[in-house]
Amino acid sequence: MAEMKEISASASAGAKLLNWVDNRFPLTKLLEEHVTKYYAPKNFNFWYAFGSLALFVLILQIVTGIFLTMHYKPDAALAFASVEYIMRDVPGGWWIRYMHSTGASAFFIVVYLHMYRGLIYGSYRKPRELIWIFGCAIFLCLMAEAFFGYLLPWGQMSYWGAQVIVNLFAAVPFIGPDLALLIRGDYVVGDATLNRFFAFHVIAIPLVLIGLVAAHIMALHEVGSNNPDGVDIKANKDAAGIPIDGIPFHPFYTVHDIFMLSIFLTIFFAIVFFAPEMGGYFLEYNNFIPADPLKTPAHIAPVWYFTAFYSMLRATNDVLVNVFCLLAAAAAVWTYLKSNLSSKLKIAILVAALVACVLLKTFDAKFWGVVVMGGGVIILFFLPWLDKSPVKSIRYRPQWHKWVYGVFVAFFVVLSYLGIQAPTTVGTLIAQTGTLYYFGFFLLMPWWSQLGTFKSVPDRVTFSAH
């Protein structure tokens, strides 16, 4: 049992209350370890605010979601009407609903920017691999949370979007039909589907999400934050053991984050009050029509934050599967002829490529589309071991590396746009090119990330007061 701390009898009532709490719960200790005495690099820039913004939006979504569940009814006959009731009759209900729907898109925007910052500054490199893995798990849970929540308004796009996505699981060999039935809870998307999606969206996924966010922050504070230079500030400490290039998170970065939050909220509420549908990107116009199982919309597409991966799925047809076969065969032959591996290992690679080609041609292209869509997310988990660059930050990499990253982002944006549009021959060709570049970016990273002339990394962080 820890020793009880005593306090002067003349201390203020607030100090006495804090001491009473500290003797029973480590409040001050937690604040010091994670806020006031947590030393972060002094050269953070605006890219480092998106993690805090993501945490804020998570809290916003939970709070607004609680208020929405007070009036929402997870019943196929009542769900759409209950949303309309929230919008029209509940005092302030329209505001809560629009904050929640805008918050969903805002969540993905700040998370995508947060992940991009980690990508360009090498925040996934040793010793921060686990932080990145927790972050990717958060991203995966966020996608699941958004997918389950998307059905709840029970509009046309919600219904048919869920119908299409769930049917994709039916393409999985052997277990597909049973898996789709398990997800739907019925042979068609209906009341049972709505109820289980509601349970996952409101209870199951948020609990996992909160746990992963806590693990993400704890792992971050255990090894310390990365910085734009990719220099470990713990390598240079003063006599008191404090990093020379570090400053307390509070008040320096709490003020920084509050400033960024004020800018974010200005934009956020401008959208909530003046353009909550955002031209049909945040709230599709078809979703203001009640779900009708007998009337299929002319064009079915998921919300914008899924569309990059949806484009990859649509782009995976027989032609792209043939390209995959050719690439697998070419990679195996090149490895056999050019590498210094043992003969047995070379033969094993050739056999593996042959098996891969047989599997690619055996199963339907629709199944490989599902694999490609899922692989686009799963491959992110392996990034810490794919990047072999001798430096972490993009600042000290060859100039052409920036173009590689820039084209990657451009293709991701293009894929997101194409996923919203109706498929065309040209669009499919561009999506196939983007899909190949996306996976090539990661799978070839162990090779290209080592190429070029790298700049010298400084011993200490570079910083100019502002």
Give an overview in words.
The structure is a single chain. By secondary structure, this protein is mostly helical. The chain contains 18 helices and two strands. It has a two-stranded antiparallel sheet. Helix 6 runs antiparallel to helix 9. The longest helix has 33 residues. The protein starts with 12 loop residues before the first helix and ends in an 18-residue tail after the last helix. The relative contact order is 0.12. The model has no long low-confidence stretch (mean pLDDT 92).
The major β-sheet equals:
2 strands, antiparallel
Number of helices: 18
Shape: globular
Category by helix and strand content: mainly alpha
Largest beta sheet: what is the strand line-up?
Answer: 1-2
Helix content: 55-70%
Cα gyration radius (Å): 25 Å
Low-confidence stretches: none
Share in β-strands: under 5%
Mean pLDDT: 92
How many strand units? Answer: 2
Q: In sequence order, what are the helices and strands, one letter per element?
A: HHEHHHHHHHEHHHHHHHHH
Distance between the termini: 47 Å
